[in-house]
Amino acid sequence: MSNDFAELDYRKTPLGDLILRRRRLRALDGLEVFEVKLGDSFLMSSLFHDVEEALSDLGLAALASGSAPYDVVVGGLGLGYTAVAALKHPGVRSLLVIETLEAVIDWHQRALVPLGPVLTADSRCRLVHGDFFDAASGDGFDPENPARLFHAILLDIDHSPRNVLDPSNASFYQPAGLRPLAAQLHPGGIFALWSDDPPDDVFMAALNAVFAETKAHVVQFPNPLLARDSASTVYVARKK
């Protein structure tokens, strides 16, 4: 097999075939890129991680000054960019990363992805195998302390509130699905969400029905494959 391409892992999952692969892009001076594919969809690529980092930066920046230390939840481990960006904030005391696909946690623990050693070496970070949406519905994010409250919950799982990986996730993006999540935040706590779509007025209305303050940030980032900028959305909502 060419050194320009390697399939690092393959697993069958209830959501479809999960593949981790590494490519070298000759068009970009041999840049090494890690990609994750689930079924027929590309979930993520290390070529594009600006918005994953912006999710942490915008979400944690919205916390009230002087309220540190922070306990943070990240929904969706992926290639680890959101989690590592969160840990760069000195106010973060603890980080729970909830990931439904056990294989993804295994990639980090086995250092098959570049940020795995960073996350597994940080004593503040705990990788939890579980369903974020079940936890958000009231089961609690920390299996060791289900009643625990958090200062920020950062979500990067579905492509957008309208483009979900599993149809059962859709109800979460309604007020009835968001309220149990808000109940797991401290007063003034932040819920932030990545979306690959432009700002969605329907979802903003759902956020406004539950949270005291909401804002949709459009984050632009360079797309070298298209030779132009692309954009995604980060929603930030504050509990009263």
Overall description:
This protein has 240 residues and is of the alpha/beta class. It has two domains: 5-44, no CATH class; 49-238, Vaccinia Virus protein VP39 (Rossmann fold, 3-Layer(aba) Sandwich). The protein is 25% helix and 38% strand. The protein contains seven helices and eleven strands. The protein has a seven-stranded mixed β-sheet. A hairpin with a 2-residue loop joins strand 3 (31-38) and strand 4. Helix 1 runs parallel beside helix 2 (81-87) and helix 5 (132-139) packs across helix 6 (175-182).
Q: How are the strands of the largest sheet arranged?
A: 7-6-5-8-9-11-10
What is the CATH architecture assignment of the largest domain?
Answer: 3-Layer(aba) Sandwich
Task: Write the element-wise H/E pattern from the N-terminal end onward.
Answer: EEEEHEHEHHEHEHEHEE
Proportion in helices: 10-25%
- Note the total helix count: 7
Q: What is the name of the CATH superfamily of the largest domain?
A: Vaccinia Virus protein VP39
Number of strands: 11
CATH class of the largest domain: Alpha Beta
* Shape field: globular
SSE class: alpha/beta
Assess the beta-strand content as a share of residues: 35-45%
Q: How many structural domains in the coordinates?
A: 2
Q: Compute the gyration radius: what is it?
A: 17 Å
Instruction: Report, as a whole number of angstroms, the end-to-end distance.
Output: 56 Å
Which topology of the largest domain does CATH recognise? Rossmann fold
Which sheet architecture does the biggest sheet show? 7 strands, mixed
User: Unreliable segments (pLDDT under 50, ≥5 consecutive)?
Assistant: none
Mean pLDDT: 95
Kindly report the oligomeric state of this protein: single chain
